[in-house]
Structures are given as structure tokens and as C-alpha cells.
């Protein structure tokens, strides 16, 4: 007995010691990070722009959190844009080097970064770009540079945009696991992958037109940046004129082929350095520590920027999920703050729960009664993402924003076929006529389908009413723009779904104008859990992530992605206002 008692005491003592050591280690790391905040940036420095982490519109770190930034897995677009703006007037920064990105940002985010870099270049400072390999989005960003260079044995992906949609009808029939789909009658492309083996003509047309609009905006910017006609940019894409460094140089996509040491020589020349002088390269992460302390927009009056990013799900929400909990708190804080004179809602979402979307829509309506509300659309503001935006006083979108998709649907998993195949028979007992409404083991009854269909139609009608009210059009006009159709920001502007084409700064300026204020500062909402709290949650879910990685390695990434999409569809609860399918643009 004494042995067991001593053993237990030893184990508990070890756990306590480990906990203390872990905590002290975290404190040490935080102190090291704080010590690094005083980083010295020398004269004639170059800001190195490497964006190899996922880019979110906003990461929401609390500056008072000693662990802020230690556990982050994403870059905040707002912070990167701010850093570029600060660098523009920083006498120590003479230029920017865009270096081997493999950019993990959406197209609208990339376009916003490109605009910021163009503005930096207009100040008279230089931008050079180098890569061993340019992916298409990387090259789009790089094309803003004064000079673009490629490794002599590198490569480039430049062929125009494409999209692939997976269809699951045969898979469902073979496995006996299917999705029962209930939708508004005119909402033709919604959940089409579960109903057919191939793309409908209408769906193919809308995706082709969407891609054409997005590519068209990219072509205009590349044409301007590289001084190549738009027609020739398309010819280069059609003929794969950038498929090798030799062809890329001949077509004008790049200025020269260089090894990295030769690229460094170009940078030294741009800085007018003498032989033996040290070249100072400042990593973006280090420069953020300086730029985050510099406030450009100042004033007692404030504009609140509320970030809504991720799927819309019922609940509290977080950095990657829009929930009514955090959004309601953020909007109420902005309304109750007397210094806040207007609100900008930044939306980056493919949609999700119709109920949550309507709760947030209502909160925006209440906010509008007190203060102007302007929406800025990011990469995607579709379906539920458009739902929460529709009532704003003014809506801005990037030309490359994906928006619209006004429609609702429901998908309910059913394993009746599989149950029969493996010998499962489910029997139900209930007290009333409709007490047994649905079982995944039985075929869906006509009565249950009608009840759900009625709910779909009612929510679709509500969605149309919200759009009609917000855009000051009739319900019939809203319906003609709806039916699940997806639009680019440029097309949405022509159709009246958005008011202006512009970025977040343009939306903030419009909010200030509506509030009739000249000088103002910015307050950002919501505040997410601390980096340490999120880290501990990640530790708790590490077992699940390890299992997912093992499955991915065993069956392959492509098959895993298919299963992941199926799982996501099966886990959707309630009626959905979301993008009709995963739109993978390459």
C-alpha cells in the first residue's frame, strides 16, 4: 500500500513539476519576444516580403497578451497592409523584396496586397521580386514590382483560371450513404454534386462567367504592371508562354533569369552600396513589431472595424468561424462606445447557418439605427456572407470578390442503402403522428420532405426580403438576381448587389464620410481567445489531428479531401445559406 501511495505521489509530483516548467518556459519565451520588440532597423534596409503562412483578414491578437504572436498560425492581412503603409514613409526602408512566396491568400486579398504595394512604389521606393517558381497567384502579386526575376532553372504557372467540382452521385449509390437534398425550386446549382454525375449547362455557364470576370481583373493589373497589352497577356496564357524561364523572359513576364546571389547583387545596386557594405534585409515578422506600434490614423473619434471571417455556424464563433455570440458582442460594444461614430463590417465568408445569418443581420439592423454601417467584402461574401451584408448602408467589394449565391438548401444524410446491405433494420415507435419525423436508417417520407421544403421556402422568402429591403429593390428583382447565382465583385457592382468597388480602406473612408468626421482612429473587433488558450486547445485536439494526418497519408490527399467535403455536408445542421459547392479555383 505504501508503495502505491509513494508511486502516486511521485507521479503527481512529476506532473506538477512538468506544469511549472512548462509555464516558466512560456514566460521565458514571452520575455524573449518582448525583448525582441526593440529590434533595430538600420539605414538603407530592404523589407523582405515572404508570405508563406495562411493569410486571414484579421488574427485578433490582444496586444496585452504576453503570449500574443507566439502561437499564431496565420498572418493578419490588416497588419501586413499596415506594415507596407508604414514602410512607405519609413526613411530606413528603401525598398521591398518579394521573395519566394507560395502565397496562401485569397484572390481578393492578393489584389488588396497588390494595391498596397503599388501605392508603396508610387512613393518613389523600389520593389523587386524573385522566385524559384511562380505560382499563378504569386506572379499576379509579383507583377506589381519594378523588376521581376526567376531562377534560371525555375518555372512558372501561367495559364488562366480553372475550377474543379466533384460529383458524388455514383459514390452514394455504391456506398449506400447518400445526402437527401431539399432546396428552393429555382436554386439549380445548389448541392448539384449530390444529385448528378456531371455539371449542368447552367452551372457550367455561371462558373465560366465567374472565372472569366476574375481572370479579366487579373489581366488588367498584369498588363499595367508589365506593360504588356491585355490581348498579349491572354496569348501568353493560351500558349503557355511562361512555362520555362526562357519563354517567360521572351514573353515579357519577367525581366531576367538570375540565381539568388545575382538577385542580391541587383538589390545591392538598388541601394547604391559600396563593395564590402552590409546589405540589411528586414523580415516581415520583425518589421511588424515596429509597424504595429505606429498609428497612422489618429483622432478622438473612432471607426469600428468588425471582422466576420469563416463559415457561419450557430454558437460563439472564433478566428475561423462566424458565430452569433462574438459578432453580437462586437457590434453591441461598437454601438455602445460613444467614441465610435461608424461601423465597418469586413466579411469573408461562404455562408452557413441561415438562422445564425439572420441573427447577425438583425444585430446589424439595430446598429444602423444608431450609427452608419458599411460593409467591406473580402475574398468571399456569398450566400450567408451576403445575407449579413445586405442591410448595410453601403457595400464595397473588390473586383475579385466572390459574392451573391442568394439561396438556401438543406442536406440530410441517409444510410438506408448501407443499412440494408450490412443487415441493419431500424424500428420506430412514437406517441403522435409526427413524433417520429426522420431516421437516417429509413427512406425519407413525403410528409417529412414537405415539412422541410416548407421551411426552405419560408427562409428563402425571408432572405429575398432582407436583400430587397437592404438594396431598395422589389422582392421580384431580388429573386431575379438570386437562385443561387454566384457573381464576381465587378459583376455584382453592375447588378446593384454592391455599391462600390474598393478595399477595406475605401469602406472605412466611406463610413467616416457618412458619420461626417474628418480625423479618426480605428478600433478592431472582436477580440479572440489568447494565443496561449488557442495553443492549449490545439494540444487537446492533437490526437484528432494526428489521426487525420495518418488517414491522409494512407489514402492520399485527394481522396481525403473528398471524404472531408462529404463529412462537412453530413455535419451541416439546419437550413443552410452557403455557397452551393466548394469552388476550388486554380
UniProtKB/TrEMBL annotation:
Please state where this protein is localized: Membrane
Q: Where is the Peptidase S49 domain?
A: 120-270, 367-517
Cite the active-site annotation: 188 (proton donor/acceptor), 383 (nucleophile)
Primary residence:
membrane
Could you tell me which InterPro entries the record lists for this protein? ClpP, ClpP/crotonase-like_dom_sf, Pept_S49_pIV, Pept_S49_SppA, Peptidase_S49, S49_SppA_67K_type_N, S49_SppA_C
- Pfam families under this entry? Peptidase_S49 (PF01343)
Q: Which domain of life is it from?
A: Bacteria
Query: Which controlled-vocabulary keywords does the entry list?
Result: Hydrolase, Membrane, Protease, Serine protease
In alphabetical order, the GO MF annotations are: ATP-dependent peptidase activity; serine-type endopeptidase activity
Biological processes per GO annotation:
signal peptide processing
**Cellular component per GO?**
membrane
Q: Which PANTHER family match?
A: PEPTIDASE S49 DOMAIN-CONTAINING PROTEIN, PROTEASE 4
| Family named by the database record | Belongs to the peptidase S49 family.
Q: What is this protein called?
A: Protease-4
Gene behind this chain? sppA
Amino acid at each position: 500500500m505504501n508503495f502505491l501511495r509513494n508511486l502516486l505521489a511521485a507521479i503527481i509530483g512529476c506532473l506538477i513539476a512538468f506544469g511549472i516548467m512548462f509555464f516558466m518556459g512560456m514566460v521565458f519565451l514571452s520575455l524573449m519576444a518582448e525583448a525582441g520588440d526593440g529590434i533595430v532597423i538600420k539605414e538603407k534596409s530592404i523589407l523582405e516580403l515572404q508570405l508563406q503562412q495562411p493569410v486571414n483578414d484579421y488574427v485578433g491578437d490582444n496586444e496585452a497578451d504576453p503570449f500574443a504572436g507566439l502561437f499564431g498560425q496565420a498572418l493578419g492581412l490588416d497588419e501586413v497592409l499596415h506594415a507596407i503603409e508604414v514602410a512607405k514613409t519609413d526613411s530606413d526602408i528603401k525598398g521591398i523584396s518579394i521573395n519566394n512566396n507560395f502565397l496562401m491568400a485569397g484572390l481578393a486579398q492578393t489584389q488588396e496586397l497588390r494595391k498596397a504595394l503599388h501605392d508603396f512604389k508610387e512613393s518613389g521606393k523600389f520593389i523587386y521580386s524573385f522566385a524559384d517558381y511562380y505560382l499563378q497567384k504569386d506572379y499576379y502579386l509579383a507583377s506589381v514590382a519594378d523588376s521581376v526575376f526567376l531562377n534560371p532553372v525555375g518555372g512558372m504557372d501561367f495559364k488562366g483560371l480553372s475550377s474543379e467540382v466533384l460529383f458524388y452521385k455514383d459514390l452514394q449509390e455504391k456506398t449506400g450513404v447518400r445526402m437527401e437534398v431539399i432546396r428552393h425550386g429555382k436554386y439549380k446549382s445548389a448541392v448539384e454534386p449530390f444529385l448528378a454525375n456531371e455539371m449542368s449547362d447552367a452551372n457550367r455557364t455561371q462558373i465560366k462567367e465567374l472565372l472569366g470576370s476574375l481572370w479579366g481583373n487579373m489581366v488588367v493589373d498584369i498588363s499595367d504592371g508589365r506593360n504588356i497589352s491585355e490581348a498579349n497577356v491572354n496569348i501568353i496564357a493560351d500558349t503557355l508562354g511562361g512555362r520555362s524561364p526562357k519563354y517567360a523572359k521572351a514573353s515579357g513576364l519577367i525581366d531576367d533569369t538570375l540565381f539568388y546571389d545575382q538577385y542580391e547583387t541587383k538589390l545591392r545596386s538598388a541601394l547604391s552600396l559600396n563593395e564590402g557594405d552590409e546589405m540589411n534585409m528586414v523580415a516581415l515578422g520583425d518589421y511588424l513589431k515596429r509597424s504595429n506600434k505606429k498609428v497612422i490614423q489618429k483622432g478622438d473619434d473612432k471607426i469600428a472595424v468588425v471582422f466576420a471571417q469563416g463559415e457561419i455556424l450557430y454558437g460563439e464563433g472564433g478566428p475561423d468561424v462566424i458565430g452569433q455570440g462574438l459578432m453580437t458582442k462586437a457590434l453591441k460594444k461598437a454601438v455602445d462606445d460613444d467614441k465610435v461614430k461608424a461601423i465597418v463590417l469586413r466579411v469573408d465568408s461562404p455562408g452557413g447557418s441561415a438562422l445564425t445569418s439572420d441573427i447577425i443581420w438583425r444585430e446589424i439592423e439595430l446598429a444602423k439605427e444608431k450609427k452608419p454601417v458599411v460593409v467591406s467584402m473580402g475574398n468571399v461574401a456569398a450566400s450567408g456572407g451576403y445575407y449579413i451584408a445586405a442591410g448595410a448602408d453601403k457595400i464595397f467589394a473588390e473586383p475579385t470578390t466572390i459574392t451573391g449565391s442568394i439561396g438556401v438548401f438543406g442536406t440530410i444524410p441517409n444510410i438506408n442503402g448501407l443499412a440494408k446491405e450490412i443487415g441493419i433494420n431500424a424500428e420506430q415507435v412514437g406517441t403522435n403522428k409526427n413524433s417520429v419525423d426522420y431516421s437516417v436508417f429509413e427512406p425519407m417520407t413525403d410528409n417529412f420532405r414537405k415539412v422541410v421544403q416548407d421551411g426552405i421556402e419560408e427562409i428563402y422568402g425571408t432572405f429575398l426580403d432582407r436583400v430587397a429591403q437592404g438594396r431598395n429593390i422589389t422582392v421580384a428583382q431580388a429573386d431575379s438576381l438570386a437562385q443561387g447565382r454566384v457573381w464576381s465583385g465587378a459583376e455584382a457592382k453592375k447588378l446593384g448587389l454592391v455599391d462600390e468597388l474598393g478595399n477595406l480602406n475605401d469602406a472605412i473612408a466611406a463610413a467616416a464620410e457618412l458619420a461626417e468626421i474628418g480625423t479618426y482612429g480605428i478600433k478592431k473587433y472582436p477580440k479572440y481567445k489568447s494565443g496561449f488558450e488557442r495553443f492549449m486547445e490545439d494540444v487537446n485536439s492533437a490526437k484528432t489531428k494526428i489521426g487525420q494526418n495518418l488517414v491522409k497519408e494512407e489514402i492520399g490527399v485527394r481522396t481525403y479531401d473528398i471524404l472531408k467535403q462529404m463529412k462537412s455536408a453530413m455535419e451541416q445542421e439546419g437550413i443552410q445559406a452557403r455557397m452551393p459547392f466548394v469552388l476550388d479555383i486554380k
